[in-house]
Write a structure and sequence with these properties.
Strand content of chain A: 15-25%
CATH superfamily of chain A: NADH:ubiquinone oxidoreductase-like, 20kDa subunit
Largest interface: A-B, 67 and 81 residues
Radius of gyration of chain A: 18 Å
Structural class of chain A: alpha/beta
Order of helices and strands of chain A: EHHEEEHEHHEEH
CATH topology of chain A: Rossmann fold
Shape of chain B: globular
CATH topology of chain B: Cytochrome-c3 Hydrogenase, chain B
Distance between the termini of chain A: 36 Å
Strand content of chain B: 15-25%
Strand order of the largest sheet of chain A: 2-1-3-5-7
Number of strands of chain B: 16
Number of domains of chain A: 1
Oligomer: heterodimer
Bound molecules: iron/sulfur cluster
Largest sheet of chain B: 4 strands, mixed
Structural class of chain B: alpha+beta
Strand order of the largest sheet of chain B: 8-7-6-11
Shape of chain A: elongated
Largest sheet of chain A: 5 strands, parallel
CATH architecture of chain A: 3-Layer(aba) Sandwich
Number of helices of chain A: 6
Chain lengths: 183, 483
Amino acid sequence: MDKKIVATTSLAGCFGCHMSVLDIDERILDLIELVEFNKSPIDDIKTFTKHCDIGIVEGGCATSENVHVLKEFRKNCSTLIALGECAIMGGLPALRNNIPITECLEEAYLNGLTTKDNNPDRILPNDEEIPMMLDRVYPIRELVKVDFFLPGCPPTADLIWNALTALILGKEMDLPYEVIRYD
Amino acid sequence: MATKVVIDPVTRVEGHGKVTIHLDDNGAVTQSRLHIVEFRGFERFVKGRPYWEVPVLVQRLCGICPVSHHLAAAKATDQIVGAGTGDGLSPTAEKMRRLMHYGQIFQSHALHFFHLSSPDLLFGIDGPIATRNVIGVALEHKDLAVQGVMMRKFGQEIIKVTAGKKIHGTGAIPGGINKNLSLEERDKFLDGKDLPNVDQMIDWSQGAIDFFLDFHKKNQDMLDNFSVFPSNHLSLVRADGALDLYHGVLRAVDSEGKKIVNDVPCQEYYDHIGEGVKSWSYMKFPFILSLGQENGWYRVGPLARLNTVDFIPTPLAQKRFEEFRAYSNGKPSQICLHTHWARLIETLHAAEVMKDLLNDPDLQGAELVRTGTRQEEGIGLIEAPRGTLFHHYRADENDQITMCNLIVSTTNNNEPMNRAVNNVAVSQMTGQKEITEPMMNAVEVAIRAYDPCLSCATHAVGRMPLEVSLVDSDGAVIAEART
Ligand code: SF4
């Protein structure tokens, strides 16, 4: 059987979902028999080098760059998975959604206890090298079509394992109640 | 023609960052910057939330070391509920938290060394990209990969029995902990039936140090001269000067080892530390106030810790620490890549501490929470795997947060990481006609030594591919390369 090609990315997420993938522990050695990783933070492949069978996205979109990466993923992956709360609903970063972004920036860079006396020019980060913050944090399904949603913060390693192996082997997913959690 | 090199994103570093290096007409490096490209706004949106939510909320800044945030926030809320500043908890609560924390140090250090750094050591900085990752390690050095996986698993399992869940647990609560350790849970780590036991972890940690030392012997020149520069170093230390990753006083030493922040209580951190802001990064630039922003920057993390402490309070790690100290003639070590060495010594220490704690009957105690007179303010500091982490909150009479100030571990290393990038850029790229992938990886290796969890530093996270554009002085792109 040809190895399935898998890409992963972390947008506005905390990387906990990627860590949960690593929590499959020894099974990671089985996984690499079944799949070949393409663009992913766990290897050094930084841009898509071929079309992928499965794209796994952690985190929602908080910046213009997140949107760009997400669209690339949709374009380059046959099946797109929203992994975890942040990708599915925005998650914790979306707590900023009912607060103007300027207030968030001012709190961090102008008013912070250890910052306020040390930023005399009242600088807010705004260089062309850093991406623009979006007005709010968007769940990825508001921007692209998503094929599967795996819930949890993070999803359990068993859930990830069961779902991935089913997809790879073309079997029906076996997702018993115990492996699914919503916190 | 002036040129700009962009490394975007940096991979195998846990965070969202990008590097730009500007070269002038003669190929001299004029500017190098590590840009952190994510921002969360946590300080603002946590306002108005009830204070007891904070230990579970704030860890979602970083899924790599959530336990550190969980515990630093819990330590701050201990004060809010009147349980004091580290010594007010019941022995069961304090030791459960310590076990959780050392489990986390152990898993995170194992992850860092085996999954993120060993590929560069095993395959070389200029090794082929296709194998230069943990999968390559797994395919070619299976024993080592299995060890790394099992060490991480051990730490994660410790976190699970103390925090309730491997990632984003709920164990620590204001004033204590919500569970103790049953004998059955404990025995799993001692009897070796389901999982290699704690003695095996100690052995493997020793083996990892030997692996590093052996590698060092063969590659001394590369390791000892890669991106070396003097700096100040900061960490918590126990009151008697011992390494203590859970609690202590704040100490900083200069490059000669002289104390420049002299064992001050955590509660006074803001009298000693300030943060600067630059327009080109979402990450702030902390420094020691008395020295000013130009000279007061410092390093944190394993290397800094072994440079600030007087000794390590477990016997096997202490022996390794003495070797480490002797190598730099008793002075603070400024060798960037010796961070790996320091990290492995701490890994061994964490294994020893876990063994002692697992054998401590206090973990089966029944007193889980203590509270006292309600306070308005709480400050919690902890040594996270990547360095000193500061959490500071105020809560009003409705229990709502009114102020939140965070300095996360990686942020403390912002200036050193920028210097490291510049150092490598100058030595590798000056006068070069072509920018090669190994050169760019060298830049990343320098960043990776600091083990940045850039996600939490911007109160974000991430991944990093690499993209190079050569831009002339008019800003026109003349060439592009991708790795
Ligand atoms: S869903 Fe949870 S674990 Fe996953 S990225 Fe978001 S906060 Fe982190």
